[in-house]
Amino acid sequence: MSRLKDTLRSDLTDAIRSRDQVRAGTLRMVLTSVTNEEVSGSAARELTDDEVLKVLAKEAKKRREASTAYSDAGRVELAAKEDAELAVVETYLPAQLGDHELEALVAEAVTETGAAGMSEMGVVMKAVQPRVAGRADGGRVAAVVRRVLAGV
Q: Residue 69: which CATH number?
């Protein structure tokens, strides 16, 4: 079993014991998503820590998007619930890259690939994604790549 999945289960038990409803509910949903990912496909398998991190990143993105949608619709109480769940999920994700760090990684990838314009954005994204590895949202990475390539 991956260490991260083991940590999630242990923290779920602690949250249940301390009667922390938000944390317990969120961890249950995350563990369900991990289990669903393990049994999807042709054969059941055990996820690695990196794969569990990808599931956590997806869950965080869902919460972020739901919070925005609720806020835009004027449903502040539901947005607050999503934000609380997002805070729980983010405790298990690696620290997010700052703007300057992300721009440096993108600039380095542009130099390595020799990209000369927007038509080569896919090549740059392919080079940057492994370096970012869950430390920045894909949309944020794409925006920085566009900005750097437009300035090239």
A: 1.10.1510.10
Are 39 and 84 in a shared domain? yes
Positive/negative CA dihedral, 22, 23, 28, 31: positive
Residue keyed to tokens 């794969």: 51
As a whole number of angstroms, the distance between CA 3 and CA 94 comes to: 14
pLDDT tens per residue across span 106-118: 989 888 888 888 8
User: pTM here?
Assistant: 0.77
Please give the Cα distance from 46 to 58 (Å, whole number): 18
Q: What is the pLDDT of residue 152?
A: 56
Q: How many Å apart are CA 116 and CA 134, to the nearest integer? A: 26
- pLDDT tens column, 46-71: 988 888 988 998 999 999 999 999 99
Average pLDDT of the residues in 71-82: 95
Same structural domain, 120 and 77: no
Residues 86 and 103 in one domain: no
CA-based R_g, the chain, Å: 18
Rounded Cα distance between 24 and 22, Å, is: 6
Q: Which domain holds residue 111?
A: 99-151
